[in-house]
Each structure stands twice: as structure tokens, then as C-alpha cells.
Amino acid sequence: MNKPLIMVVEDDAAVRNLITTTLETHEYRFQEAATGETAILEVATHNPDVILLDLGLPDMDGIEVIQKIRTWAKTPIIVISARSEDIDKIEALDAGADDYLTKPFSVEELLARLRVTFRRLNDMKSDMVQSSVFQNGDLKIDYAAGCAFMKNTELHLTPIEYKLLCLLSQNVGKVLTHTYITKEIWGSAWDNDVASLRVFMATLRKKIEENPSEPKYIQTHVGVGYRMLRV
Length: 231
Prior knowledge:
Blueprint: E1 5-9, H1 13-25, E2 29-33, H2 36-46, E3 50-53, H3 62-69, E4 77-81, H4 86-95, E5 99-102, H5 107-129, E6 133-136, E7 139-142, E8 147-150, E9 153-154, H6 159-169, E10 176-177, H7 178-186, H8 194-208, E11 218-221, E12 225-228
Parallel strand pairs: 1-2, 1-3, 3-4, 4-5
Antiparallel strand pairs: 6-7, 7-8, 8-9, 10-12, 11-12
Keywords: Cytoplasm, DNA-binding, Phosphoprotein, Transcription, Transcription regulation, Two-component regulatory system
Pfam families: Response_reg, Trans_reg_C
Protein name: Stage 0 sporulation protein A homolog
């Protein structure tokens, strides 16, 4: 079976060489692009499994690249950027990125992010086979029945809590921004109502986490959003 194909979009030759050398060492296949225009063309032509994308490209901003790719492809996109402000992360994630790695980064962290992404892809393929049931550790969601269980005991969730749990479970390993979650759960009327979201997330955690102060299922990305971890 062929190793996954990774598209590396980075105009800095030194950084690009670091990434591609790392990928080659770990026997990943890869292709390179130094501009946004080339990246879009290569993605459309070769359909990579994952895209590693720098935002500061010479011909167009990486956010625009994400937006263009998202018009036809759901390929996981991991942003690798020197932009470290929360607003930059939120903008990239809202545009359709799946993860965000800030420069400078360690090779180990990059490989870990890739492993998480590939696990999520494999889980999605598995879930398609058994799309009515989601299992993650002791957590089970029966989408068809509209029920959730922890250690085979049914959870008594409010409608909002259940919708939040389903949304997170359908995006395991992916950071979901506050704006994305509120739009998906409540619609535009609740857009940016982060305080209310935190309240519902806190009550949900009390029902699924053994220790809500040290959650293992739902991870908080401060100032950005939430991510369900694969347990």
C-alpha cells in the first residue's frame, strides 16, 4: 500500500527542506510548492492526503489558498505559520484549516500532528462503515437512536449538549472554533456568544469526564475553540 501523499506549501527553502527531509526520513511521499497558485494546481492535479501550508506565500495569502481549496476538496490542511496570535489561528481554522502549528516547531510535534490527522482520516473511513454508531473509549453515541452512553450507561443530555457532543464527535481530532460551533449549533443569532457556549461545554464535561478539570475527551484551545480527542 502506498504511503500517504503530503503536499508541502512553503516558500522558505530552509523550512521546506526541513519538512521534506523529515517526511522522507519517515517514508512519507511528498510534493512541494513555493507559491499559492502552484499549490492549488498541484492539489487539484494530484489529490494529496494532507496539505502542510504556510500562510505567508509570495503571491497570495495562505487564507485565500485554504478558501479556494475548500470550494472543491475536504483534504486535511495543517497550517504551519509564524503568525502566533489567536486571531490568526481563528481566521485559518474558520477558513477551513484542520490544525495550526506555530513556527518555530519541533519535528516531533509536526509528526505528532500528522499522526493525529491520519488517525482521524482512518476513523472517518471506519465510521462510514458503521455510520450510525460512534465509539471513543468509554463514550458511545448512537446517532440513529439519538442517545449517548458512558461505560454503557445512558447519559442524560439536554438537546444542546447532545448536539455539541455529536458535532465534536463528527470532527474528532479537529479544532473547532467558537464561531464555527455556535453557527452549527444555534445559527447566526448565536454567533460569537462564547460565554453561553462555555456554560454548555462545562455541563457537558461534567457528564462525560471523570475529572472535568482535567478532561480527556474535550480539549480546550484557549481563545480559539474546542477539540475532541481520540481516547
